[in-house]
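User: Structure tokens for this complex, please. No commentary.
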Amino acid sequence: MPKKIAIIGSGMMGSALAFPAFENGNEVRLVGTPLDREIIDECRKVGKHPKFDYPFPVGVKYYQFEEWKEAVEGVDFVIGGVSSFGVDWFLEEVLTYLDPSVPVLSVTKGLINLEDGTLISYPDYWERELSKKGIVREVCAIGGPCTSYELVYHDQTEVAFCGKNTKVLKMMKEAMQTSYYHISLTNDVIGLESAVALKNGYALAIAMTIGLVNRHHGPEAGLHFNSQAAAFYQGVKEMRYLLEMQGASRDCENIGIGDLYVTVYGGRTRKVGILLGEGKTYQEAMDILAGVTLESLVVSRRVYAAMEKKAERGLVDLKKFPMLCHAAAVLDKGADAELPWEAFTFDETK
Amino acid sequence: MPKKIAIIGSGMMGSALAFPAFENGNEVRLVGTPLDREIIDECRKVGKHPKFDYPFPVGVKYYQFEEWKEAVEGVDFVIGGVSSFGVDWFLEEVLTYLDPSVPVLSVTKGLINLEDGTLISYPDYWERELSKKGIVREVCAIGGPCTSYELVYHDQTEVAFCGKNTKVLKMMKEAMQTSYYHISLTNDVIGLESAVALKNGYALAIAMTIGLVNRHHGPEAGLHFNSQAAAFYQGVKEMRYLLEMQGASRDCENIGIGDLYVTVYGGRTRKVGILLGEGKTYQEAMDILAGVTLESLVVSRRVYAAMEKKAERGLVDLKKFPMLCHAAAVLDKGADAELPWEAFTFDETK
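Assistant:
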């Protein structure tokens, strides 16, 4: 049965989800945040997101933020499409006022590091903060290798939805799945959310190898995948240690490895990593990429800060994470991007 | 202390290993197989392998196969550099006559499927066959993401050496490690050899997604990594099931995932996969790639045959391997390359 779905946040990922949602026969209402005013204006005028190559399906409805309460009236669920910089805004301006019986599916990727080094998911964060206000609500989330513009292109995409309530997850999958948008389901919220957030520091370090090849051999050097694959191997190794600490399921780990793969190719993280690999300082890279938002770096730093704290408490050995430490040193301590390759070897002989 | 090393087989991978071996201060003797006659002739004339961009370091010595016994005189170890098509030749013409006290390090990647569906490594195969002749010898092997021309380029490369004898492995690592060739060590021979062989069917299927994008959107479609990442995720999932069956260590699994990554990019498997994805039949793809040897497809078929046999015996459920089955069906049953995407989803909800 078709559903009514409101998407709050008309950035690229939130907006991209309007495609499978609408094409599967649902009513879709796309709501801009106060930062999205011009996007919504343009959608109303020409039916196309300014950053997409294709128009929205005809029939998607557009709302400015002032109209959000109208937009969520009678919906079966709400998709939270804010960036990680909008997490508190979404909490204060939407979740606090939204009927707790209306399920929410969040597409915001990230983790928050608590003071003791614990890394929690955004759904967990929202649930904790809402409970302080006396509001009991669960938040479901989307993870997996999906770039927005390729979803708009109807590329084959595999993601997972996580949440505590299986019935709600199944309803959401039925509503959203299409011939190109394939949805796995898990109750392992922290596992999935960790899997798709922990990749950031690793994608950054893998991208550095591309810049390093440019630096050592010139930009016309052609194919050089040995070092990329070596860094990918080490990234997978460290991600698996981290995900084990987070108690993630094996399927969530696999989704995280797929997400690492797409982030090396499709994301903004790639651009920063290449510039750092080429020998630019962090500040120079930021100047070159002025205007690009870098959620991924925020998450990388949080993960590193969490591991540093856990190491202080004797709970982890940072020697198991040479690539994470390296990425952090390049970002914030001016270290050269050349990776500590020999530290990536293992010796499991007896 | 510098070593004397003979490399038997002057194909691309055997020859590439002459670079780290010689640059680390060892004496290196490169021996062609009977198929390599012209390569050795050319090496003697111009000091360069015909397929490499760079000359060999000055000082590498070259031998035709008739001179192999001279070449192995007094060596500390022999590197076996034959392709998987030369496995029996290497057994009959070299291993049968080589002093069993001289360690051998093989770079040949692959697995052999026994009648009951068991997959064994080449070192295991050679050891079994030699023991039938009353010869007791162990064979060490190299696995990991390494393409030969990039090793020649001195790209940063991470591999692992496996073998039963730790002392021998450590000697080989000391002899071969350089500032760009980094070596992990493991006694898990079947684990490492499985990890780097099982990737082939998966690399093929991932490469198909590139061809599928060309077919659906035209070759100018630009970046399309969602489907590649989705296939990569599924490939990792199935490889991990297979490696669990093979009893592989976690570090070997990680090396295998790195090897999968490099094979999607650097290998011949990629070319076949793209052609199949674009809609060519297997025969058409073979005609287009005439002259290219496709060891990877031999291994893919063996792995699939082994799993089919195990499934018949009730030991595995082929439903856990939809991508392996799909790759086999495209190769040998004329199936269309479009992947069974929904079969890649999981549901681990309670």
